[in-house]
């Protein structure tokens, strides 16, 4: 039995992995796939790939592209979710900030440098035509729990996280959402360490085939909206909206999509060069 570790955030996007693992679909193909939750998100997963703590990651596109360019010995093997990720921009309930424009020069709470919450703060600033050098400040709060504790106590002024994951905390009155910021590209990809690609590409292919079969019929599962709402403590209507917006994929990033990501990262001075697609993408 081949042992492979995969990392991801414990959110509704990854429920298809939970179902496939629960049904022992990978084991049936001779693969002992072990799932590892990463509450710290993409920055934490990038580090785990570098340190060989995991072999695969379901990870934010912009975060892994940036880290591969900066030396992470991994490649993107497939897009997992091709629709954009809708990032909610949140402040504490009693915050004086009322609109996105009010946040110019305020302190963004981020899980860690290189994380999605860090990179998307740059995308939001660019969308708002802010001065990247003067108008962005950061406070590291580690994860969503850190933001829930920190923002009401003045640790960071605003926090960007996936809109539907944070919706229960908006409903409870801990956060107030002042706007949204969708990613301008497919949001989640599956990355594999180069060592695994070189040593066992067939295992990766098998894993991708199995999860693609799961996502292909995911929306047809009876009462899937209620199951997701129960598991992730969401309102059924919010899950229904999320399902209507979300599209999974069985293909890799195109060269044009990768070019758009690299151009944005370069424009924001988050990378110092663009690289050839084969440095970042691996196609079977």
UniProtKB/TrEMBL annotation:
<dbReference type="Pfam" id="PF22384">
    <property type="entry name" value="PBP2_Ca3427_like"/>
</dbReference>
<keyword id="KW-0732">Signal</keyword>
<feature type="domain" description="Ca3427-like PBP 2">
    <location>
        <begin position="91"/>
        <end position="180"/>
    </location>
</feature>
<dbReference type="GO" id="GO:0042597">
    <property type="term" value="C:periplasmic space"/>
</dbReference>
<dbReference type="InterPro" id="IPR054364">
    <property type="entry name" value="Ca3427-like_PBP2"/>
</dbReference>
<protein>
    <submittedName>
        <fullName>ABC transporter substrate-binding protein</fullName>
    </submittedName>
</protein>
<comment type="similarity">
    <text>Belongs to the bacterial solute-binding protein SsuA/TauA family.</text>
</comment>
């Amino acid at each position: 039995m081949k042992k492979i570790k995969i990392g991801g955030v414990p959110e509704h996007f990854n429920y298809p992995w939970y179902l496939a693992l629960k049904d022992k679909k990978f084991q049936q193909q001779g693969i002992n796939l072990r799932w590892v939750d990463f509450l710290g998100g993409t920055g934490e997963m990038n580090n785990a790939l570098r340190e060989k703590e995991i072999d695969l990651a379901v990870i934010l596109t912009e975060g892994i592209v940036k880290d591969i360019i900066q030396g992470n010995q991994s490649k993107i093997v497939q897009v997992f979710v091709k629709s954009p990720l809708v990032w909610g921009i949140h402040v504490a309930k009693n915050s004086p900030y009322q609109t996105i424009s009010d946040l110019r020069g305020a302190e963004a709470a981020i899980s860690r440098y290189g994380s999605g919450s860090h990179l998307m703060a740059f995308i939001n600033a660019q969308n708002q035509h802010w001065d990247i050098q003067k108008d962005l400040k950061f406070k590291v709060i580690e994860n969503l729990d850190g933001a829930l504790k920190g923002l009401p106590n003045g640790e960071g002024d605003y926090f960007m996280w996936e809109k539907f994951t944070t919706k229960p905390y908006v409903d409870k009155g801990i956060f107030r959402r002042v706007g949204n910021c969708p990613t301008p590209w497919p949001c989640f990809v599956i990355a594999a360490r180069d060592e695994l690609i070189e040593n066992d590409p067939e295992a990766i292919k098998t894993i991708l085939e199995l999860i693609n079969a799961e996502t292909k019929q995911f929306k047809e599962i009876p009462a899937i909206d209620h199951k997701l709402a129960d598991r992730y403590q969401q309102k059924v209507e919010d899950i229904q909206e999320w399902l209507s917006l979300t599209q999974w994929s069985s293909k890799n990033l195109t060269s044009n999509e990768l070019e758009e990501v690299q151009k944005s990262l370069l424009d924001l001075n988050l990378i110092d060069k663009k690289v050839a697609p084969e440095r970042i993408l691996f196609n079977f």
